[in-house]
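Changelog note: in this version the structure field was regenerated for every chain. One regenerated record is shown below for reference.
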Amino acid sequence: MKYLIIIISLFFNFSVYAEIKISDVKEALKEDDVGNLKILNDVHPRNAKHAINPISISDFSIIGNKSIRFEQNHGECSPKDCNTNRERVELIYEEIKWKTERWYRFYIYVPKESSILYPATMTVLQWKRLLPNVKAKRVLIMFRHYLPGLTFNFNGDNFPNTNIILKKNEDLIGNWTEVIFNTNWHPDPKKGFAKVWIDGELKVDFKGRMNDRKHGQEVSLRHGLYSGQLSNYRKAFNKKKHPQRIIYFDGIKRERTCSKLLQDKNKCERLLSQSVDYYDLFERNHTDTKLISDRIARIKIKTLEEDFKDEKLIGEHYGKPFKKNKNFTQEEIDFLMTAKGDNEKCIRDQLYSGLDLLRRDTLFHERYYRWEVFSVLKDIVKDCLN
């Protein structure tokens, strides 16, 4: 009888907490003047149904009286995410057309008790482009929390995969951070741009393609906590469980001009008068357990823009130029493409459905040229090749 009461109590708590009222979230957004940003009528469909306290309204706030709190715990994933080594709790907003300039503002707060989870990935903001006539989406931009701090990610789905450091962890954790993001999501490299200000200081000033010319007509925003490649964390730290992650969002807003976004002409003028000459880029490594200085390199913004025009890989700036046909030996290629039985199971246990994608597109697809991708495949081969 004692255990039956515990089980019933747990089931009751899961049901109550997981069923966050979207109306409460909308009310918290409305309080802060969300602008023309419209949340969908539900949370992300892959948010775990059994999550204990995934999304809640908090009185810890920097604007108004309420903020939105996201919490992620080990094992809180939908069946599809669990099978692909991910956990998430996110809100999704309506799709918009890319042709109009957009201004976004967010305040984020990462408490000291939250874990970074590196070398897994942890995304707090992301924009995706929709593919026509299908439900699939491809990531454009992400804001991620990594070992060096908050980073701006040109995602590998659409760009040479690149992480620009925005704010170091010693300043980020335990403090509210204002994020202002301005773009037009334009696919023309002569018209596209992206600007990011952190706490009023310009950190990203990119001019170039910001979308796919044929398949980027609509763009959608989602934010919260999205953790991927979780096996990297478990392997690096020899852990079986992922630690808790927490983040607060406040002052969320989107408008078409800076003046409408901030209601402060002088502040807009200060923002737009700034310039930046270089970026500090962070190179991910799926085995790192601490921050290594060699993973950070300084690069002129003009160099980055030129590389993006040529679709070069950012790894070249670390003295590690990638060559198409030199990442894998013929034996490794044959093993990945043709392994059967226990060997195939060993690969699939780590790569999941990615093995089918690999065998369909082959190792000569551009996604496998990136250091962070082919290095994972190298380790899988090492683990599984007998």
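Spot check on this record: The longest strand covers residues 218-228. Confidence is low (pLDDT under 50) at residues 1-18, 317-325.
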